[in-house]
Design goal:
By secondary structure, the protein is α/β, with parallel strands linked by helices. The chain has one domain: L-arginine/glycine Amidinotransferase, Chain A, CATH 3.75.10.10. The chain is 29% helix and 21% strand. A three-stranded mixed beta sheet has the order 2-1-15. Helix 1 packs across helix 10. The two termini are 12 Å apart.
């Protein structure tokens, strides 16, 4: 089985009830609720941002499967599907335990029904029973996967349990590398994918967030051993979603590092030059989603690595 880091196949969930989730805000420092917009305005703006982002991805040769979220029950974070489901090369699907009870409502087999038209699904692995023990592992938010080298990077937090990380790695045959990451206020970074992104031959990472020098060096060594150029970002850039990026591949074979305009605008010339050596930059304008949802473009895209029926 050939393992690749990038795919042109992406699942995205068009929101029906996007809004500020007070449950996730308990440990997501990226969320802001300043009352400047009404709930209806927030919802309308988020849907418009979502639709424009999907159009931009498709225009650049990315194959996007869009699942329409249902109106009921209300799911304010449904736009971020990568936290509750992941799709793998062997046909397996894994669903994950979620910290917020509201987010647990997002899990639905209807997503699988949508994808089964074009992809082979051979197994559904359920990890969500860990919610009964108040343990969580929120998919590729909690873990940043180096699929080619079979490594799962994870910063440990209330959303990311180290034992569940080990369980995931045992299931898929990966090696775990865990560490503690904190923001400028010394608060735990809630998800790994806001402080780092892994591409085919580079890693965008906020090393400054890892205070333990041994843990930081383990990360650096791992990137060097797997031939990844380290592109460091600052704590302030992390706060601007510069770590929340995803490299994708178009059907034409072009590689893009997808990031928000917020993230792109905070990068300096040296960082952009380093990125451009490896991949093209593709941006989406999603300020409402970032502000009230506390997540950026990477959180909106669930990579589909399932075997394609037309190619198998």
């Amino acid at each position: 089985m050939i393992k690749t880091q990038t795919t042109p196949n992406i699942l995205m969930v068009r929101p029906a009830s996007f809004g500020f989730n007070e449950e996730t805000a308990e440990n997501n420092a990226f969320q802001v609720n300043d009352q400047s917009l009404s709930p209806q305005e927030i919802k309308s703006k988020a849907i418009a941002e979502f639709d424009q982002f999907v159009i931009k991805l498709k225009t650049h040769g990315i194959l996007v499967s869009v699942f329409q979220d249902s109106d009921s029950p209300t799911k304010p974070d449904a736009i971020f599907p990568n936290n509750w489901i992941s799709f793998h090369e062997d046909g397996s699907v894994i669903t994950y335990p979620m910290y917020s009870p509201k987010r647990r409502l997002e899990r639905t087999d209807e997503v699988l029904n949508l994808l089964e038209h074009d992809f082979w699904i051979t197994e559904h692995i359920h990890l969500e029973d860990a919610e009964e023990d108040n343990k969580y592992l929120e998919g590729t938010g909690s873990m940043v996967l180096d699929r080619e080298n079979q490594i799962a990077y994870a910063c440990i937090s209330q959303r990311t349990d180290v034992n569940l990380l080990d369980q995931f790695c045992e299931i898929v045959g990966y090696n775990p590398i865990s560490f503690v990451s904190t923001d400028s206020n010394d608060e735990l970074v809630y998800h790994s994918n806001v402080m780092m992104a892994i591409g085919e031959d580079f890693a965008v990472v906020c090393l400054d967030s890892i205070k333990n020098t041994t843990e930081r060096q383990v990360l650096i060594d791992s990137f060097e051993e797997t031939d990844k150029e380290i592109i460091p970002i600052s704590l302030e850039q992390m706060n601007q979603f510069a770590g929340n990026m995803l490299q994708v591949r178009s059907v034409q074979g072009d590689r893009y590092l997808v990031m928000s305009e917020t993230a792109k605008n905070c990068l300096n010339e040296k960082q952009i030059t380093s990125i451009n050596k490896h991949t093209r930059i593709l941006t989406g304008k999603i300020p409402t989603i970032e502000k009230y949802g506390g997540g950026s473009v990477r959180c909106m895209m669930a990579e589909v690595f399932l075997p394609e029926k037309s190619l198998s």
